[in-house]
Amino acid sequence: MSGNLHVRNLDDELIARLKRRAARHGRSAEAEHREILRQALSAEVEPSFESLAAELRALTSSRVQTPSEVLLREGRDER
């Protein structure tokens, strides 16, 4: 799947640096931009579902939990 990404409001100096870097690597500024994003994001590790769930449990451990059957019963009784 291909998509487009538009980046607005970049400093002129940043654009110039991107163009110089692209020229050093023999690429267009757009190709260099893609490569920079690819490298930056490929190094980032996606958290597993288990670690996200554990983090959520830790964040909500001090909250009072209402069992779902109680909430369902309250909803039915309101009708």
Question: How many domains would you count in the coordinates?
Answer: 1
Rg on CA atoms, Å: 24 Å
* Residue runs with pLDDT of under 50 for 5 or more positions: none
> Which word captures the global form?
elongated
What is the CA-CA span between the terminal residues?
A: 47 Å
GO biological process, one term: regulation of DNA-templated transcription
InterPro entries: Arc_rbn_hlx_hlx (IPR013321), FitA-like_RHH (IPR053853), Ribbon_hlx_hlx (IPR010985)
Domain Antitoxin FitA-like ribbon-helix-helix: 4-41
Protein name: Plasmid stability protein
List keywords for this structure.
Ribbon_hlx_hlx, mainly alpha, single chain, 4 helices, Plasmid stability protein, 79 residues, FitA-like_RHH
